[in-house]
Amino acid sequence: MQIFKYKVLKNDGTKKEGAILADDYRRAYETLHRKHCHPMEIKKVYFVSKKVSLDDLSMFFMHVNFQLKCGVSINDAIESFTDFHGNKTLNATLLNISDSLKNGESIGEAFEKNPSIFDSVIVGLLKSAENTGNTMEIISNILSFLKLQMDWKNNVKRVIAYPIFITVVALMVLILSVGVLGPQVISLVQNCDNGEVSALTQFTINVLPKVLQILFFLSMGLLILFWTQKGKSLLSQMILAIPKIGELSIKIFLWQFCKIMHIALYAKLDFVRALDLAIETIELPILKNELKNIRDNIADGYKISLSFSNGNLIPKEILMAIYIGEEGNSLTDSFDHISENLYKEILFSIKAMGQILSLGLTIFTGLIFIFILCSLFYPIYNYIEIAGL
Q: Per-domain residue ranges for the chain?
């Protein structure tokens, strides 16, 4: 499929611009003609700069949710969204979905053709919504889930903004001092002290840049390594080995798992199918394998609470909530309660870690400034004293 940008004249005399997915120009023309539009211009889009973000998806589901509440069909809601939204990739995909719906395909089948934009969770929930007939409520839950994802990601960005700023400033000062001031200091000291340069200054000028280069290339090598599947597995193990960060990582994935379980159970999926849907979203191998074992035990007839209790990564608070939900036949409410509590804990942990990281980096930056003063500016001070200035 390729993206084509078009300008058309509708039967009512109005002009319209947009984008559409098609195999070639002829298919694009035929698709537009079926929509009772007269193409004035069709151009192939070779470069698409904008990706489909969480904001774009949230805006789409918010629009569809509102339109459905107003009694508009989902197909008309999709087409009306493309009239004002500017993301060509999303617009072209949605128009293609609209055509699939008009050709008799189900909602789940139409969205399933675009896995790069609508993941397996969204597709699975839409399929369940179609089967149970509560499409409006499921779309509302999908929207809530997307908003929660955006909220905690924005919180993470706000927390790490200051540490990143401090790190960049420290590196810039270090590079400027070593690369620009360093050679001038050495030249000044050699002229004054007959070529004798202190060991600390020599280390700063000659050794420190090589250390920085080694660290840079080592970091690039690790990034390339962790880009592979084995590297990601190794990285996840390393992250889990860090006490606080490992616990936070597990909580984030558990929150996502429990939230999707709540939405899936609310959509009247059976528990095993809901588990399959939620497990697909887990990217942490060790947790994913544990949840698969839990799923297999439940499918074999074991009690839900007993199967979860056999895991090593599920906190006691979650096990207790699942047990209460199973005994009271209210697992949907239990997973909703678990996800809300985990979300609050995650936000608190992220803010606390951000404060600790900011303090640590501030101290580290201060030590860098002190080191620079001692290794570069102190020899200048000695030179001033010797020169009698």
A: 2-44, 54-146, 147-389
Q: How far apart are CA 159 and CA 355, in angstroms?
A: 8
Give pLDDT, residue 238: 73
Q: How far apart are CA 153 and CA 220, in angstroms?
A: 25
- The helix (H) or strand (E) run that includes residue 253 is helix 243-266
Q: Are strands 37-44 and 2-10 parallel, antiparallel or unpaired?
A: antiparallel
Residue 186 pLDDT exceeds 50: yes
Tokens of 338: 């678990």
The number of residues making up the chain comes to 389
Task: Please return the burial class of 127, using the count of CB atoms within 10 Å of its CB with bins 0-12, 13-18 and 19+.
Answer: buried
Average pLDDT for 132-149: 80
Identify the top-confidence range among 19-23, 199-203, 276-280: 276-280
Q: Taking residues 329-357, report their average pLDDT.
A: 87
CA dihedral 354→357→363→368, nearest 10 degrees, is: -120
> Contact at 8 Å (CB) between 5 and 39?
no
Please provide the CATH number assigned to the domain covering 54-146.
1.20.81.30
Residue 387 has what pLDDT?
56
**CB 49, CB 74: distance < 8 Å:** no
